[in-house]
Specification:
By secondary structure, this protein is of the alpha/beta class. It has one domain (8-170): Rossmann fold (3-Layer(aba) Sandwich), CATH 3.40.50. It is built from six helices and four strands; from the N terminus they run βααβααβαβα. It has helices at 42-46, 57-63, 77-86, 112-119, 133-142, 160-170; strands spanning 8-11, 67-70, 124-128, 147-151. A four-stranded parallel beta sheet has the order 2-1-3-4, with helices on both faces. β3 (124-128), α5 and β4 (147-151) form a beta-alpha-beta unit. It starts with 7 loop residues before the first strand and ends in a 7-residue tail after the last helix. This is Secreted protein. Pfam families: HAD_SAK_2 (PF18143).
Length: 177
C-alpha cells in the first residue's frame, strides 16, 4: 500500500456499480444501459451486466479526493473488466483471507475486519450495498482514524447523492492529514 496523504475509498462492484434487484415498478423498461465511451477489452464486452455500469462514474470517481481501492470479490477481474469500462487505471485490490467458520458469527460483514486492517490507520470510506449498523458501530470502536461506511441501494447503484456525500466527507478537514 503506497503511503498517501489522501484517504482511501474501498469500492465494491456488485450493487454500487452494477445495480441489481429492482422491480419493474422502479424501472418499467428494465435497467438503463450504457455504451463504453472508449475501447474496452473483450473481457469487459463479454460480461453480461457490464452495460448497467454508467461509464460517467469513472470521471466522478477519479475526481474524488482519495485513493481508490477495489474491495470486491471480483478481485483482479475488477481491473480487467470494470476499470477499462470506467476509464480507470488499474487500482489496488484488497486480497480477502480464506473464509472461516467464524466469519459472520458476530454479525459483522465478512469484509469489515480486513478493510480496517488494510487501511492501517488511514482515513477511509467504504462503499458497499451490504454495510449494516453493526459494521458502523464496530468500526467506530476499532478504527484509529476517521471512517465513513456508506451503504448504496443495490437497486439503484451509486447515485449523484452518493457522490455528493462521499465528496464532502473525503474533502473534509477530518480526513485530510
Amino acid at each position: 500500500m503506497p503511503d498517501s496523504p489522501l484517504p482511501l475509498l474501498f469500492l465494491d462492484i456488485d450493487g454500487p456499480l452494477i445495480p441489481f434487484g429492482a422491480t419493474r415498478q422502479l424501472f418499467p423498461n428494465g435497467y438503463p444501459t450504457y455504451e463504453a465511451a472508449h475501447r474496452v477489452p473483450r473481457e469487459a464486452e463479454a460480461h453480461p451486466l457490464i452495460t448497467r455500469v454508467d461509464p460517467a462514474h469513472g470521471p466522478r470517481l477519479m475526481a474524488l479526493p482519495c485513493e481508490l481501492v477495489w474491495a470486491t470479490t471480483w478481485m483482479s477481474d475488477a481491473n480487467a473488466v470494470i476499470a477499462p469500462w470506467l476509464g480507470l487505471p488499474d487500482l489496488p485490490v484488497v486480497a480477502w483471507p480464506e473464509p472461516t467458520a467464524e466469519d459472520g458469527r458476530d454479525g459483522l460483514h465478512w469484509k469489515t475486519r480486513t478493510l480496517l486492517s488494510w487501511a492501517a490507520g488511514r482515513p477511509f470510506a467504504w462503499v458497499d450495498d451490504e454495510i449494516t449498523d453493526h459494521d458502523r458501530t464496530w468500526i467506530e470502536h476499532h478504527s484509529p482514524g476517521p471512517a465513513l461506511l456508506h451503504r448504496v441501494d443495490p437497486r439503484l447503484g451509486i447515485t449523484p447523492h452518493d457522490f455528493s456525500v462521499l465528496g464532502k466527507w473525503l474533502g473534509s478537514s477530518e480526513t485530510v492529514s
